[in-house]
């Protein structure tokens, strides 16, 4: 008895000790991520390096180039500032205040006008911030717009124009132009260097690099890598992939380090870490009771920021219509009130933004020269703040590269310092630090204007202190909420005024009754599986779309997928060539051949034919597109169709062609489809999440319509006007 039992126990023990078979779940994950998911292995590290090596190298190069560009522009601006100081130091200019103002204004107007001439002459797309354009490019796949806004001419126009704008002393910032120039650097490297071309061809990776380049622009400008990444995500992305987070930090960190390094070439006494606006706040700089004051500052700045956005948008629209013909001459006239506004408050308006912000956020008293023109700081501070905001509205309307961050931060710091000084007078024994209120006020106004929360992180990074962490977070949350409730952000206002193809954010609860069938198009080219050369030609001429849908037949309309336009063109030319050779061998009369050639020349020289070949999809009003039936009813096209009908019969254009799915002619069945009853909020979410340019609408497998990004954009704006609701 003991023998069989012992052998059975031994078999059980051996079975337990044996390796358990892998479950289906384990095999699935190992097949996806490799065999070393549960333990470290050198091979995994090597594979990761080989996979991410090119993107990392590209990000480091972008950060390095952007930092060197920042250093170069800053050096040029400092050179112009030194020239301005030497000119104003001439003794004969100090005989009267009028002479001093004339010399200061003349220098500002001349340098700013040179910047306008350069921008208009080289590339007008360089004017403005650049963040709205990047927000539009990142939001969807727009190759044409990317090449248009991210060209080499735009880069040189932006860089030199920004140096003139900052060196002139007008009220403009640099964060937007640097975001734009960094994105141009990334675009040119990916597109024109073969080593990185694989990244450019991958839509997802290309957008990731654009996001990282935007972070580099902010990080190198403010020496704020963390805030730069967060700010770039907030202002350029509606939906951000967490997997791209580390790439943005790699680029921002490399840009920040290189920027600190090259700064020591000109100032060797600088330490390894040197914030832009260093402060010396003590740990006990505020009490809990002062949170009420910080909330009040943020509330007022929220209202002021919304007012600034609305005023700036309306003035820019009016000014654009007025100065469209001779922008340089009108810009010259606009610079005169800009100089008056900056000179009016005294030396505080003539000082650089860096100097003003450093003094406002200081724990010390304000410089005595600021009160030479106006003896009371309670008059000087609000006057300087209002003049700064108005001057910023006028300055950013010029055809110059210009940002809004630093000017609005300066104006907010002036308002905040005013409230801090008033609180100090009212409560002299509470140890109130007015400089802290200036920091909170500046961050609050920027948060209201841009609708961002990361301004608090940037403010802490470029001051080098985290003492006001909680007050800053509280203030930017309140100000951003107030600004969002009262107006759109400054970047969205530019998108709306320029008509860029960016989908506005929807208020879902206000559009619950709108479905995909309400916004879809029903007139568009399509092909049946059994088609002909003539129908291939008609589908290619009707609309210059990048893909054409294929259905079973015109009765059932079962949706098979989409075919690339290039494949259809190749098939058309191949079949047309074969048909010509066949009928030539049959001996078609020469008179018919000559008549056909003449007819072809006449058709190709028709203005309607040219219009179809050069249609820009972004300029088409989607719900006014012409169907194929309507197109053939046009008198000129109908005459051409009648002239060509006999030639088609002779050339075999009506011979059937079966569209077979093979390696040379691929019918993509993985295109995005939605049901006709899908809510518009879900359709909008698909566009934002997948970054696609088109969605097909089906019902039980039958193709009934399509929704283009441009069409949905126009439909949302129409709904906004029709229902009078706030959609963006």
TrEMBL record:
Domain of life: Eukaryota
Subcellular location: Membrane
Keyword NAD set for record: no
Pfam families per record: Voltage_CLC (PF00654)
Molecular function per GO: voltage-gated chloride channel activity
InterPro entries with a match to the protein in the record: CBS_dom_sf, Cl-channel_core, Cl_channel_volt-gated, ClC
Chief localisation class: membrane
One GO cellular component, as annotated: membrane
Topology in the lipid bilayer: Multi-pass membrane protein
Parts of the chain that traverse the membrane: 56-77, 97-120, 209-233, 291-311, 323-344, 377-399, 405-427, 439-460, 472-491
Alphabetical list of SUPFAM superfamilies matching this protein: CBS-domain pair, Clc chloride channel
The entry's keywords: Chloride, Ion transport, Membrane, Repeat, Transmembrane, Transmembrane helix, Transport
The protein, known as: Chloride channel protein
Lineage: Eukaryota, Sar, Stramenopiles, Oomycota, Peronosporomycetes
